[in-house]
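Key idea: predict the complex, not the pieces.
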Amino acid sequence: MSTIRVRAVSSGDTTVVQSLIQHPMDSGFVKNKKTGKLIPPHHIEVLEFVHGGKTVFTALWGPAVSKNPYVKFAFKGAKKGDEIKVSWVDNEGQSDTLTAKIG
Amino acid sequence: MIQSPDAPDRARRMILKGAAVCGVAGLGLADMTLLIGQALAADAKGWPAEAFKQKNEADVLKALYGKTATASDKIALDAPEIAENGAVVPIAVKSSLPKVTAIAILIPHNPYTLTAAYKIPEGTEAMVANRLKMAKTSKVIAVVESDGKLYTASKTVKVTVGGCGG
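Result:
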């Protein structure tokens, strides 16, 4: 299952996009309770939303974004049935992509 | 601008493969330099690593945008007065300033000041909502780039239980 959940709803000329991503977003400041060692930072760095070949929103995230991050934004120019592509890359080079239909 | 988010990962795998078989023929020098750069710096393409290391507002703004900011009343910063759980603090920024191209959220009392930076291309509204971690009570600063200039608004959020360490 994808780590990405996205809901994009268009109303008039504006599409509101909400997205939830499953990711630990480890800050690097939290200790592993069993070993007492710091859990290294592991967080999404770049999250991008593309509609019709154009990037409509880019998030640049550090370790202070909450676990399982949520983001909401809105853009113009899309209509119901269009596709929006969501992709992220983290600091360990892991990534995921999902394409969703705008409702 | 990452059209293909798995490119760095692919690049890294290619490098590993290349190193293993010493087979780098077919790659131009420029390609190799680019690939090696990506392989060494594990950070995603376009991620402003320097800005995320800074420990105060001025240094973040300098690293991220190369300029200073002035206060504006045209930025709405929506954050709770008191955050009971510093691990999940809902924060939203909205602005009525014209030609907004970027929004960033800074928390100076966190270990690193910059928490998130957003690029707002033309056609996208000057609005973002997200959830951030706060180590302790701090001012939260919303930064908006409008028509090439930087503006800020801030609000203090009291944190009952910090959300960075443990």
